[in-house]
Design a protein that fits this description.
Layout lengths: L2 H18 L13 E9 L3 E9 L22 H15 L2 E2 L2 E2 L2 E8 L5 E9 L7 E5 L10 E8 L6 E6 L3 E4 L4 H17 L4 H10 L5 H20 L1 H4 L5 H21 L3 H26 L7 H33 L3 H29 L3 H42 L1
Parallel strand pairs: 1-8
Antiparallel strand pairs: 1-2, 2-6, 3-4, 3-7, 5-6, 7-10, 8-9
Length: 410
């Protein structure tokens, strides 16, 4: 069997695998975050903290619950006081790295009896700078994880909003420039280098086919420019659109890019696809930046520039590694075409799973029509992959016969 014939056999087989992956949609449990709302008000000599904590995060307190899930109204004052003391201890409020002793800590049931309100007061001296707290220090479950939303009000400044998820972490309430730089750079590295994100799959699709160096550099430049625009315009691009829908568009573009590896579209069509992916993936990056932006305090512009430059620099490094690896593989194997097609189909398979998973999340969120529309879009692209593969395979089979007939006629 010739190399061309083997290439198309692999193409048909892997395309069938990709289309079959659409049937593997699995049910997912819905994750419901348990939100702790904290307000911190700082004045010249006093610091007041108010926290509203869901009862579901206070299981260790042994609160008696009614059949409807509400806390028993006969809870003892001692039990509430123990909760207040424990919350103050977990907050571990500090000023310039020194722990602040609480002058008062009280707790009472929320009006709905499904939460507890805790008030803690601290005495401070000097300026209201250098304040930090240990946030999100509550025990949840995999499907009911804690999330802490903080509003920080200083005497003369506008309120700052912070959101903390995941593991407990110490957060500065009035960060300096160095802290803003570290937070933003770290977030950008995590976004680009941790895990196989859509951007990595798309880079593989762009760099799997061997192109002239100038063409590869042009495509990467377009991608980085579109991503930079997507990061900057993320608040605009996601107005009225769930983030998961934007992520589905990026994953669908990856499926289309895998198709482009196989059929080799016109340069303009590929550039348009790169722009579409860059904007949607950049908006996803921008949403990640939005989570760390509040931790930059008054240094928002510095944080945005740091995040953007770091993310694009890390992605450029990834592109260089992928391109060098691809050229090395081309030198050591004679089956580069087959490897390229097989890798493209594998990328399409992974991207299809991402589209389907995100479509399921959209459906659970109530946006059924959007979830179905975007999922069908990606499934259609995979169907096109299979159709093109079969057509090219049939065409190449007829070509030798045509050549033999022409040779006999002559």
């Amino acid at each position: 069997m010739s190399i061309a014939r083997r290439r198309h056999v692999v193409l048909v087989a892997t395309s069938i695998v990709a289309i079959a992956s659409c049937a593997t949609l699995r049910a997912h449990e819905v994750i419901v975050e348990q939100i702790v709302r904290i307000t911190v008000a700082a004045e010249t000599s006093r610091l007041d903290v108010h926290a509203n904590i869901p009862a579901s995060l206070l299981n260790d307190a042994g609160l008696a619950r009614m059949d409807d899930g509400r806390i028993d109204a006969t809870i003892s004052p001692d039990a509430l006081q123990a909760i207040a003391v424990d919350v103050a201890r977990n907050l571990d409020m500090r000023k310039d790295g020194v722990a602040l002793p609480a002058t008062k800590a009280t707790a009472q049931l929320g009006a709905d009896r499904q939460s507890v309100n805790v008030d803690v007061a601290y005495a401070i001296s000097g300026s209201v700078t250098g304040l930090s707290a240990r946030l999100n220090a509550f025990q949840g479950t995999a499907l009911r994880p804690p999330r802490t939303d903080v509003t920080y009000r200083a005497a003369s400044n506008a309120p700052q909003q912070l959101t903390v998820t995941g593991k407990p972490s110490r957060v500065s309430l009035d960060p300096g420039a160095a802290s803003a730089f570290r937070q933003s750079a770290g977030s950008a590295f995590d976004q680009v280098l941790n895990g196989a994100g859509d951007h990595l799959l798309f880079l593989l699709c762009l760099l799997l086919p061997l192109r002239p160096a100038r063409e590869s550099a042009r495509l990467i430049g377009i991608l980085l420019a579109a991503q930079a625009a997507g990061i900057a315009l993320s608040p605009v691009l996601t107005i009225g659109v769930p983030l998961i829908a934007v992520q589905m568009i990026a994953s669908s573009a990856v499926v289309a890019a895998a198709l482009a590896v196989i059929v080799g579209p016109a340069s303009r069509a590929l550039a348009g696809l790169v722009i579409l992916f860059g904007l949607s993936n950049g908006a996803d990056f921008g949403a990640a930046f939005g989570l760390v932006r509040p931790f930059a305090g008054a240094h928002g512009l510095l944080a945005l520039m740091t995040f953007t430059v770091t993310a694009l620099g890390a992605e450029s490094w990834l592109a260089a590694v992928i391109l060098a690896t691809r050229r090395w593989l081309d030198h050591i194997t004679v089956s580069g075409g087959i490897l390229t097609v097989a890798a493209a189909a594998l990328v399409a398979h992974v991207a299809m799973h991402r589209v389907l998973d995100r479509g399921h999340v959209l459906e659970q969120a109530g946006t059924l029509a959007a979830g179905h529309a975007l999922t069908l879009l990606a499934v259609a692209w995979t169907g096109v992959m299979l159709t093109v593969a079969i057509a090219r395979f049939a065409r190449d089979r007829r070509a030798p016969d045509s050549r033999r007939v022409a040779s006999a006629a002559s």
